[in-house]
Known about the structure:
By secondary structure, the chain is of the alpha/beta class. The protein has 2 domains: 4-216 and 304-313, Spore Coat Polysaccharide Biosynthesis Protein SpsA, Chain A; 233-302. The chain contains 10 helices and 8 strands. Helix 9 (233-261) runs antiparallel to helix 10 (269-302). The chain is elongated and about 90 Å long.
Amino acid sequence: MDRLGIVVPCYNEEEVFPISAPALRGVLDDLVAKGKISKDSFVMFVNDGSKDRTWELIEEEHEKFPTQVFGVKLAGNVGHQYALTAGLITAKDFCDVTVSIDADLQDDVNVIEEMIDKYHEGCDIVYGVRSSRKTDSFFKRTTAQGFYKLMSGMGVKTVYNHADFRLMSQRAVQAFSEYKETNLFIRGIIPLLGYKTDCVYYERLERAAGESKYPLKKMLALAFNGISSFSIKPINMILGMGVAMLVIALGVAIYSLVQFFRGQVEPGWTSLMLSIWFIGGIQLISLGLVGQYIGKVYTEVKQRPRYNIEKVLSDDSKED
């Protein structure tokens, strides 16, 4: 019987933890009763430097259910993608298959059983995919759709309407752990692993409690990180813009010379200023974009640890 580990990144989840912990333990109990996972399966909560009582609650839950609830305490706040990575890599040493899910329970825990069924059918990766975005506001729905279209247009392979709710076998997590880059975009890395995959579909629920940890600013940062980590198309676009500007500049030069020899030269203040500002703006944007790539190279070559683990709560068992 395969041992399941449910990995849950947590940042300031004091309000929602008393709801999510028993709900996820209930999922384990149900799957064990149906004979689909081993009885020593567990939920692993990863505390990402929370400033509230999240870690204390994890410790209390572990004391009550030492074989069902594990905990990983990171030494500081490193961000959702790193916290999720820490949880997955730690959990793979204790289990045969992992499921990652956010603590807010907006992802439907009931489809975890369907994920396990597909795993038993031979899938190493099963994506949890939203069947619709009816519950989102118009702004969030539009920006999310724009995000996926932009990623696709830039050549980044992602699963439409999928975030970080997924099942991964132990060997899939092991393969993922070999990707050592500092600029993590997990949604783009997982499709590169190449193992057999499938999807399960669900309706996203309202957040059980607390506030969203992914405001617009973080979503934009995630989108840019994904594009710049997986695609050089923006740099190619800059080259294309440079060529286009060169062609326009040659046309303007020819026109100016013709007008000069015809004696019809005008001061042309407006066109001159527009040209200067337009070209100057393109140059600044281009330099900034190239600078972002150089910055990523800078962070990668230093090879600093992506996270540090301060404490791990487990049953110290690695047996099925």
